[in-house]
Amino acid sequence: MSERPGEWVVIDLGTAHGSVADDRAPTSRQRRRSRRRRLAVAAVALLLVCGGAATASPPFRATAAVPVEPGSSVSVAGDLLVIADPAPPPAPAGGGAGGAATDPGLAELRGYDLPTGTERWRLRLPAAMSRSATRVGDLVLLASRDSIRRQTGTTAVDARTGAVRWSRADAVLTAPGVAVGLAVQEVRSASGAGRRISGRVEAIDLATGRPLWHEQVPLTAVAHVVAGDPPLAVLVLDSGRTEVHDLATGALRGVGTLPPADYAPDNPRVTEHGLVLRHPDTRPGRRSALSAYDLDDVVLRWSRPDRAREVQWADCAGDLCGRTPDGIWTLDLDNGGQVFATGDGLPWLPVRGSADDLVFRLLPDERIAVADSGTSTTPRAIGTLPVGSRDCRVGETALVCRGGNGRQLAIFTLPRT
Known about the structure:
four-stranded antiparallel sheet; Thrombin, subunit H; mainly beta; 6% helix; disordered N terminus; 31 strands
């Protein structure tokens, strides 16, 4: 892995984000806008002090630090930092009780409070090549992966105590604020984790792990869980057949056929308002197209030429936008209208785990600028991280990054209003 933050992707927290909804829980869009407002107000205050320049933004200062091994898996799940050792922790020098209790088939996981860095719990689970953690209400879903990046199991633990609630031998897809998940079997692939699924697809109650309904996928497919009223499960088979199910009941709400495409977790991009697919354009003189479909009946809404060669999908305050080397464009999902803004030539990369609210980029002096992204190509500065910061993750209240030596995690408290 490169030591230069501009050359790596900030943490992958897996496919699940958010929390289980209660009777008065905010929607995913309300949560995004609430965080955006919080960051925007903080950013405006900083801009008044710093003149609005990212390079002049005040530095983040670490409020706590946690030791970590270079090969450990690190995740931020809401207000919890989870560290998983890929092998049993080393025995104390000279042996002793700690060494005697070591089991080579188990790995140790530690949960720390954010932003204080205080240890909450320790837990031992079967050893895995890597793990990631995702917060769902009062639970944390711990996902394990094997040597070729296939998810091999999911364990739900109590976020406060670390007590195991339930465990499954497959992957679980979730969406913010949705109390039901979709358990899937990932296809073994070296091209990317979770790129395809096959076999049995099963909806489960996330609080208990109890199955609700299931379906057998006859081909490989891409699956999505979509927040909304009601929440939906969207299955896109490699044949193009697309099924939209009520996530809680399994009832089929819509079915249709999409054109041939390179189907992947980010293609089509699915929102609660519809889906947008990048696919080859069969019209003369055109290379590719963007086409939008209703989720109710999978009927084509609009189609337009796609001229971007490289694009990163992003969720910009509930709208769909794409970041390219040349700038950012935003799509109107109702009619396909496209608004393009030219960038300044220095790419901003999304901080994973922030729902695209935070972005970062490497400055000429090797510091890392962090900003509230919005839909602008000139994001609003929040602060800068020290030289050597890397492998960063963001949660509800804190940003966590490895230091230059890889053996310590620095915890930076996000601005509050």
